[in-house]
Design goal:
This protein is α+β, with helices and mostly antiparallel strands. The protein has one domain: Gcn5-related N-acetyltransferase (GNAT) (Aminopeptidase, 3-Layer(aba) Sandwich). The protein is built from 4 helices and 7 strands; from the N terminus they run E-H-H-E-E-E-H-E-H-E-E. The chain has a 7-stranded mixed sheet, with helices on both faces.
Length: 165
């Protein structure tokens, strides 16, 4: 059975460790940075549990369209004039790929955004995930280096994303 719920304080270290399993070393965030994102917008931090094991999470927060949030940046606050939901991170344990956990977590964040009258979405696609986000209706706005060794795409969806699987 799959359980989706908001992450709690006691889940943060486990979620951070899961991210380190899912991503190469160049994309690891510090625990402090991960905790910061939870602190500033906990309602955008959701997890997926299968048989009481955390196997995926999403981290999102309100933000400004066309502005990138970089890894390990915990120096920012949320803008008062936010105009989009920024999907910072989606991590699914490799053993749980192709079980639709990511799409369920993304759907939860879309619902949260719509409930807050936010209809623009943004994020950074890495690890060749731009195809996944394009299936949600996101478009590449620009290519850049997220870290020194990691090319990435800043992507936006200026409407409610719909899965086109």
């Amino acid at each position: 059975m799959i359980l989706l719920r908001n992450l709690k304080d006691e889940d943060i270290k486990e979620a951070h460790s899961l991210g380190n399993i899912c991503y190469p070393l160049d994309l690891h965030e510090s625990l402090e940075s991960f905790q910061w994102r939870f602190k500033i917008y906990s309602e955008g931090c959701r997890g997926a549990w299968v048989d009481n094991v955390l196997c995926g999470y999403i981290v999102a927060h309100i933000w400004k369209l066309n502005e990138i949030v970089y890894l390990n940046d915990d120096s920012y606050g949320l803008p008062k004039d936010a105009d989009c939901m920024y999907i910072h991170d989606v991590a699914i344990h490799p053993l749980y790929h192709n079980k639709h956990l990511g799409s369920r977590l993304v759907s939860d964040i879309i619902t949260l955004a719509v409930c807050k009258n936010i209809y623009n979405f943004a994020g950074v696609a890495i690890k060749s995930t731009e195809g996944y986000w394009k299936r949600w209706g996101f478009s590449v706005e620009r290519e850049f280096y997220y870290t020194v060794n990691v090319p990435a795409f800043y992507m936006t969806c200026k409407k409610i994303p719909l899965w086109r699987g």
